[in-house]
Design brief:
There is one protein chain. By secondary structure, the chain is α+β, with helices and mostly antiparallel strands. It has a 6-stranded antiparallel beta sheet. Strands 2, 4, 5, 8 and 10 form a 5-stranded antiparallel beta sheet that branches. A hairpin with a 2-residue loop joins strand 4 and strand 5.
Length: about 200
């Protein structure tokens, strides 16, 4: 992949790429209201991956900001947050949606979902992840209260907003333009759209 090439993450689908240690990449909310589930794996050992469960206690925070590192399930830094002009509202709590989740939401037939998008994106570049980690849900707005209540809200980002990361090891990065169209997490219109990423 050439540097600065903009890659489309199709609406309701996934995309993946391999990047080298020291390279940076941007995830772009093209239309402003699209959640992008994001994963990062150690390119040399896919059983090591960015882990929300290990990042939160290391940062002592529910989210992240520029200057923070994100950590793997082996507690090693894998990505650094370089810049974020989207308002800084992202989610490190929610698991990737799957067909079981949509059954709970009332779907009686198959529904596109982020778990399957990850599997398909990895397969497209000849890889298979040994498990499905919880993703960084970029641009996803899940406010919480002091008493622990959670809510599903529309993103606060705007068209063209982005977040930029730097790889701290050789990585496989993967994305899903979340296909959620029942809850308003992809905007009040509940219409998933494409997003983009760019390796710098």
């Amino acid at each position: 992949m050439s540097k600065s090439q903009i890659i489309t993450i199709p609406a309701r689908r996934g995309k993946a790429a391999v990047i080298k240690e020291g390279q940076s990449f941007q995830v772009i909310n093209t239309h402003g209201s699209q959640v992008v589930d994001t994963w990062a794996f150690n390119a040399d050992d896919l059983s090591e991956f960015q882990s929300n469960e290990h990042t939160r206690p290391t940062l002592l925070n529910m989210t992240f900001k520029p200057g923070d590192c994100l950590y793997t399930n082996r507690r090693r830094p894998i990505l650094e947050v370089v810049a974020d002009n989207s308002g800084g509202v992202h989610d490190l709590l929610m698991a990737a949606c799957d067909n079981y989740r949509y059954q709970l939401l009332g779907c009686t037939e198959y529904h596109d979902n982020c778990q399957d998008n990850l599997v398909a994106a990895m397969k497209e570049i000849g890889l298979a992840t040994p498990e499905i980690p919880s993703p960084m849900n970029l641009f996803m707005n899940i406010p919480w209260t002091p008493t622990g209540e959670l809510a599903w809200e529309a993103p606060v980002s705007s068209s063209g907003d982005y977040i930029q990361f730097k790889a701290l090891m050789d990585c496989v990065i993967a994305f899903s333009a979340c296909p959620q169209d029942i809850l308003p997490i992809n905007g009040v219109n509940r219409k998933p759209t494409e997003a983009h990423f760019r390796v710098l």
